[in-house]
Specification:
binds manganese (III) ion; mainly alpha; globular; about 230 residues
Length: about 230
């Protein structure tokens, strides 16, 4: 009975007096593996802080920023990001941060457990970048040359693969970027992603990062975009 009373009290709390149900709040997704699972490429302490503090802060700050903008809180994610240029910076940065990190955890897997590019993805990579090695070199170049904080991406744009990078927590779904598309792989090159282990050696972080790319997830995301365009 006591539990029922608490449940009723909580339910009443989420429904304002005028009867409108508040939009759902964003939740920090659990990591799909243990914090130490990506070692030695990415150390446990970096993962613990990156997920538990940085990503959590984006989620918490996003929820706080949306409390006064229920109009924006109701929008599907694609529509929200597509109007990034008009968003308050707290919503643009924290929604981007939440989206980007949610992808980032999924496109990584413990060393040697991420599989390999599917025949379909490999064919597209070969078509658009000549070879897998050439693609990886160009992607790493985009990631190392991104000045300051940001991300490097592999996106699908009108059926073609493209490499791009964005500053801060922007991403290729936003209307503010030069190269738009659906991201299927992304790497965080903010210093908080690698500084504890690699200090200023971003190139070394990237070299190790390829060992923990979850190609199975990249393949899945690629297949989804090709299905959507048919
Ligand atoms: Mn980060």
């Amino acid at each position: 009975m006591k539990n029922v009373m608490i449940a009723l009290a909580l339910a009443a709390w989420t429904v304002p007096l005028h009867g409108a149900v508040l939009p759902p709040t964003h939740v920090l997704p659990a990591l799909p593996y243990a914090v130490e699972a990506l070692e030695p490429a990415i150390d446990a302490e970096t993962m613990r802080i990156h997920h538990g503090r940085h990503h959590k802060a984006y989620v918490d700050n996003l929820n706080a920023a949306l409390t006064t903008r229920s109009d924006l809180a109701k929008l599907p994610i694609e529509s929200l990001l597509a109007r990034a240029s008009t968003l308050p910076s707290a919503i643009r940065n924290n929604r981007g941060g939440h989206w980007n990190h949610s992808l980032f955890w999924e496109v990584m897997a413990p060393p040697n457990q991420g599989g390999a590019p599917s025949p379909a993805l490999l064919a597209a990579i070969t078509r658009d970048f000549v070879s897998l090695a050439a693609f990886q070199a160009e992607f790493s170049r985009a990631a190392t040359s991104r000045f300051g904080s940001g991300w490097a991406w592999l996106v699908v744009q009108d059926g073609r693969l493209k490499i791009t990078s964005t500053p801060n927590q922007d991403n290729p779904l936003m209307d503010v970027v030069e190269i738009k598309g659906t991201p299927i792989l992304g790497v965080d090159v903010w210093e908080h992603a690698y500084y504890l282990k690699y200090q200023n050696r971003r190139a070394d972080y990237l070299k190790a990062w390829w060992q923990v790319v979850n190609w199975n997830e990249v393949n899945r995301r690629y297949a989804k975009t090709s299905k959507a365009s048919k």
